[in-house]
Structure formats: C-alpha cells, structure tokens
Amino acid sequence: MSIDYENRYAIGQNEAKNFDTKQLRENFLSEDLFQQDKIKLVYTHYERYIVGGVVPINAALELSAIDPLKAKNFLDRRELGIINIGEQGIVSVDGEEFVLNNKEALYVGAGNKTVIFSSANKNSPARFYLNSAPAHKSYPNKKVTREDANVLELGSLETSNERSIYQLIINGVVETCQLQMGMTCLKPGSVWNTMPAHQHDRRMEAYLYFDLAEDQAVSHFMGEPKETRVMWVGNEQAMISPAWSIHSGAGTSNYSFIWGMAGENLDYDDMDKYMPNELR
Questions:
Q1: CATH classification at residue 82
Q2: 200 is in an annotated binding site
Q3: How much of the chain exceeds pLDDT 90, in percent?
Q4: Total domain count, the chain
Q5: Is 220 flagged in the annotation as binding?
C-alpha cells in the first residue's frame, strides 16, 4: 500500500505540562514523513490539519482519501498546499500537470478529484511536503515560485536570526479558504527562527525543518510562554504546534523550515509576541 497515515488527537496545555520527552515527541513530532515510494500523512485534530510527505521514485503516487475523511476523494472538502524540497517533480491535478522545482509551491483547491505525484528523475527524486485543511469553497489551483512569493527580510547577524521569509501560499499571493504556507531560510551564521516567539490563539501551525545536515539538529521550543519545553528535531522532521503553544527554534547550524497554518482568519500578523526575557 502506497499511503500510510497516523491519527493524532488534540492535547491540551494542562496535559502537556505533565508529559515526558517520549510523550511530547509521540504527540507533537513526526520523524518519518518522507519514505521512498510512499505517501505518509499525519491527520491531526488541531483544525483537522494534515501534514504529509511524498517521495515518488519507482512509480507515480496518487493521493487518495484516508478513512478519517469519510470522503470519496481526498479534496472533496479540503484544500491542499504542496512544497517540493527535493529535485524536480510533477504534480498532476485532474490531468493538468504542474512542474515543481526545488522550493516551489502549488496550491490545489477543494473539489479536485485526482492528485498524482511523480519525479522527473527517479535517481534524483522529488520530495513533496503536504499541508491540508478543511475548505468550504473551491479556489483555483496555482503554482507559486520563489519569485512569485511575497518576501520579507528580517533579523540580523548580530542577533543570530538573519533570515528570508517566502510567503508562498498566503493571502495576497493565492486565494485560499484558510490554509497558509511559506518558507523561512536562515542565512549562514544565523540559527534562531521566529524571534520574538509568539502564539496565535485562532490558528494552529506546523513546522517542517529541512536543509539541515544529518549530524546537526534544531532545538524546537513549544509550550505556553511561562511553561516552555524543548525537543531536539532532525532534518525533514515536522513539529505540530497547537494554538496554545509558542513555536520557535535554534539550530546547531543554519537551516530552512516550512511553516503552514490554518484557523479562523488569514491575517498573517495576528499573533501575541513574547520577547526572549519574557519566556520561562
């Protein structure tokens, strides 16, 4: 079978305070999204958000509905965001082909019937990262390159957080119901992301860390601002961040990460920020 999924129920902040490292990792971290010739999905009960990975090598892989969706097709009541973190790949949506190079994105609207993934060269496969959220309306499919993105240059080398933020699937670039996705790339010498740390009570978020050497890691910080926890995260691993949690990280080298979110509104700046000296 070419599609596997996990079903993860929501955890509240009071429960999470009592979790040990193993329990935190089991509930909030996905370590194995990218598997050869498979589609791997994690269905969460935070905004019914799905994160996933697709690595087509020897055959094309079709995104089919999983049991929790109770639907004939995956996108009957959902929208989908795709970002390729590997080599060139092709996504076919109801017969229309979109070629995605490294760090290019595709938005796929609700109501499409078939989504098929393939690699242009099986010796240098694509690695598609997926985010999906419920949708009440169908918007047009749209490919987004880094040149199409809204780009923010933030931070500085002095504070170790000089970074470029590519807003790829976001209000003003692509019309969506609630899904938003983008990519942050840290400059050499910078390691901190998302400073100041923040919460957004009306949205959940997911982070995929990548472009990280296999012998390096990122310390991902989560939890309430006065009750933070840390998890060590490796390359191509994804963190699920509930609305009650901050999300920030510091790596042992520079890296990139993809952020995706869904919830009540599309205002990117709708967040409650906490300065480093306010965190505990």
A1: 2.60.120.10
A2: yes
A3: 92
A4: 1
A5: no
